[in-house]
Amino acid sequence: MLRAQHLMKGFVRFRKIEDNEGEVLRIAWYEPEHYIVEAVAPFFVDRFASMRWSILTPLGCAHWLPACDVLPQGRLHFGPPADVSQKPPPDGGEMLWLTYYTSTFNPARLKRQTMQKFMPRKFWRNLPEAQLIEPLCQQATERAGKMLWRNAPSAPE
Question: Is 62 exposed, middle or buried (0-12, 13-18, 19+ CB in 10 A)?
């Protein structure tokens, strides 16, 4: 159960949307194997205390309303399961995230088994960066070779 909670903390991806009143809301779709939403939600409250967010799962949902005049402490509440049709569409920040992921991928340090141990394939369908994993892995050997060639010491003069 602790591993499932750890994975949720690492694999939730919020997407920014506007609600019916034009207010910003960040929504994440996540598919846990166990009902861990209530146990993990306080982590997201601490991390994103000033954001209004919802984490939707097929096992139950968490919703956070940040502190304001009416709710000086903010409000975390839980709701019924959500359907995958409620998964938010990609937002403008997604391209930035994909660019970051691509630029920090180090082909010289690729270890597929280790990567899949810490980022199991069953979570890939909901991770935007997962679409980049196979192409980056396929290019890794060539890219690592180019890195070595560019950084090779020059012959003494």
Answer: buried
Query: Does this model's pTM top 0.85?
Result: no
10 Å Cβ neighbour count for 13? Answer: 20
Task: State whether the Cα torsion 101-106-112-113 is positive or negative.
Answer: negative
Among the listed residues 58, 64, 63, the one whose alpha carbon sits nearest the alpha carbon of residue 81: 58
Report the pLDDT value the prediction gives residue 129, as an integer from 0 to 100. Answer: 73
Is there a contact between 49 and 74 (Cβ–Cβ < 8 Å)? yes
For the chain, the straight-line distance linking the first and the last C-alpha, in angstroms and rounded, comes to: 61
Cβ partners under 8 Å of residue 112, min gap 6 = 137
Phi, psi of 75 (to 5 degrees): -145, 120
Closest CA to 78 of 96, 55, 94: 55
